[in-house]
Specification:
Structural class: alpha+beta
Helix content: 10-25%
CATH superfamily of the largest domain: Calycin beta-barrel core domain
Shape: globular
CATH topology of the largest domain: Lipocalin
Number of strands: 9
Radius of gyration: 29 Å
Oligomer: single chain
Strand content: 25-35%
CATH class of the largest domain: Mainly Beta
Order of helices and strands: HHEEEEEEEEHE
Number of domains: 2
């Protein structure tokens, strides 16, 4: 009888340090490039979602960064304002009648905000919040504020603060145009409970020139 031959063990390839390093480097590069491409795609999608629709007539929007009024004397700005028009928003869906906003400066430099509106059933809704000034380089007293209606203990969270930019204000502090830099929110405010229609239209025309979709505006109490 012949002796059974044992199978020959496969040859072991010597470890190639350079080849392994190149392979790891290639995988790392692909991972980084893929991650950057994914981030850019998600950022583009977020930007597209945040961009407001244009006016119904197709006129091009002015996409330049919005400028705020400077300086704004918050002591003069304080007091009662009546909403005349607004772009629709989720937190005023229940408002069917007059809307007012009262601003009261506080000793710590903030401003108490008291918003009130009449609902469809005739009852009132009221929200009390706080506003703070956002400094603008080279523009002391600029009318750029942030407003919070969440509890004070949540004030450290950036997401609870909403932009409040004063875009237009007459010399007598009687009419104010307020909006947000993404052009999603807009309000026309006046000291008078009802603003003259021609003056209101002037404010809306100016807002339209800034790129706000004024075709969607809701007129308050008209």
């Amino acid at each position: 009888m012949t002796q059974r031959q044992r199978p020959t063990a496969p040859a072991v390839r010597p470890f190639d340090d350079r080849r392994t390093s190149h392979a790891i480097g290639a995988m790392a590069t692909a991972f980084v490039v893929g991650g950057v491409a994914t981030w850019l795609a998600l950022d583009a999608a977020r930007t597209a979602r945040a961009r407001p629709a244009g006016p119904a007539d197709g006129a091009p929007l002015m996409r330049a960064p919005l400028q705020v009024v400077a300086p704004v004397d918050l002591q003069r700005y304080a007091g009662m304002w009546h909403e005349q028009a607004r772009l629709p928003n989720r937190f005023q869906k229940q408002c069917a009648g007059p809307v007012s906003a009262e601003y009261t400066p506080q000793p710590d430099g903030t401003v108490q905000v008291r918003n009130r509106c009449v609902r469809q059933d005739g009852n009132f809704d009221e929200a009390i919040g706080s506003a703070r000034v956002v400094p603008v380089a080279g523009q002391p007293g600029a009318g750029r504020l942030e407003v919070r209606f969440a509890p004070a203990w949540l004030g450290w969270l950036p997401m609870v603060w909403g932009d409040y930019w004063i875009l237009k204000l007459d010399r007598d502090y009687q009419v104010s145009l307020v909006g947000t830099p993404d052009r999603e929110y807009l309000w026309v405010l006046s000291r008078a409970p009802r603003l003259d229609d021609a003056v209101l239209q002037t404010e809306l025309d100016y807002a339209r020139s800034l790129g706000f979709d004024t075709d969607r505006v809701v007129l308050t109490g008209r």
